[in-house]
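Morning!

This is the sequence you dropped in the shared folder:
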Amino acid sequence: MNLEAIQTALREQGFDGWLFYDHHHRDPIAYRILGLDEHSFVSRRWFYFVPAVGAPRKLVHRIESGKLDALPGEKELYSSWQELEQKLEALLHGASTIAMQYSPRNAIMYVSMVDAGTVELLRDMGKQIDSSADLVSHFEAVLTEAQIASHYAAQVKVDAILRAGFQHIGDSVRNGRHVGEFEVVQFFLEAFAREGLFTDHGPNCSAGANSADSHYEPTSANSRQINSGDFVLIDIWAKLANDPNSVWYDITWTGVVGREPTLREQLVFNTVRQARDAAVEEVEAAFAANETIAGWQADDAARNVIRAAGLSEYFTHRTGHNIAVALHGNGAHLDNLETHDERLLLPNTCFSVEPGLYFPGEFGVRSEVNMITSPGKAVVTGPSQFQLLRI
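The structure's back. Tokens below.
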């Protein structure tokens, strides 16, 4: 735990303190930020309060009295629920506005770890409980220079593997060799192993109508053969395998096999591309002007393009997600559909921009790039697709 950094962030965001609370590992965020063992046995409630100024304070059950001993601060013990409530109120004496892993109306469910009853208890004590969402982003999503470098290292490898995968599909079809979606996935996994890359699942190859399912996953049992004339979508993601703190690279490209795209396919792709670029430009402009921008604003930039084209009913997911050590990290997502994500896009964070349009029974287009921000600048980290591939 970096106490100085936490207290600096608390003062900058106007909190009196940050109350961490857990029971049976309900809050994995707390364990990561505090540097606790995420696999330790926890059968009783514990509280850890970091004030904006001063020493932290702990409250733990007597039968698990050593649970927070790795952390600085004075310790209080409880046994009964009455004693817990009394000592918790004393623990928070002098603090009014407190951050917790809570989200009003569960709007940002990714950080909403505290149960409603605990929030009610604290409010009965006269405390104002506010969301720690932007604090969590600061400590979970902001990347080091080494992590940013790991993203770019993965980018070079994954881009090359993706090109080879499309080439493998095209060569196989032209030479009359059977090639299925699942075989393409295995091709990518073998390439990952050779190049020192790791993925937790996937990647995905979707042909024909399967590309209209945004979360389709081919298996050996359901794999569809890829034929001349097919529309193909590939979503591919990986990170460096030799570094547990490395950052993912995650992209999606589309193309057609052995033919020119239809006018409708081109129209849909161009709409998705324009939506992607609108979100990218919105983020670029905000960072260039040193203005804050929230995730929902970038989502709106993309969604407005698709709405203007009369196709909003076919854009069924958020525009992008945070990328960090976890593929879907705890920073701001580009989302004003599934959630109204008010978290800020912070400097030195990474996220995807990936609008899509999906027509069930026909085909689907998604165009995904990654961005990394820095003070005064935001950039796309790899190549962007500007036309449908001819495979």
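Headline: The longest helix spans residues 145-174.

More detail when I'm at my desk.
O.
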